[in-house]
Amino acid sequence: MSIPSSLLTSAGLIGGFAVARATKHRHWGGVVAAGAGLAAMETCRRRTGIGRALALGTTYAAALTGSHPLAKEIGAWPAVFTVTGATAVTAHLLSKRRG
């Protein structure tokens, strides 16, 4: 049994930000975020194919980059939770088998 892509994306976005904040080293947070994002893409690829996995990767990357300007508007943690929720829903939908 594999870990759902939605859980992996959530862990990557929230965990990556938490690690960056706790360690004061953004690159460590990036390592966590990248690892979880790649794992989510691989899970999605195995389940539904490369096209949806690439769409998930694009969504995840957009969430990572989009959280920064959003944080200036609503705060850091609210921005992380907002993009995490949107990404988790997208990951769930993209990872559903067709049929």
Structural class: mainly alpha
Backbone CA Rg: 13 Å
Contiguous low-pLDDT stretches (5 residues minimum) are none
Biggest sheet overview: none
Distance between the termini: 20 Å
What does this structure look like?
There is one protein chain. By secondary structure, this protein is mostly helical. 88% of the residues lie in helices and 0% in strands. The protein contains four helices and no strands. It has helices at residues 5-23, 26-48, 50-74, 76-95. It is globular. The two termini are 20 Å apart. The model has no long low-confidence stretch (mean pLDDT 96).
Task: Describe, in short, the structure shown.
This protein is mainly alpha-helical.
Please describe the topology of this protein.
Layout: H1 5-23, H2 26-48, H3 50-74, H4 76-95
Helix pairs in contact: 1-2, 1-4, 2-3, 3-4
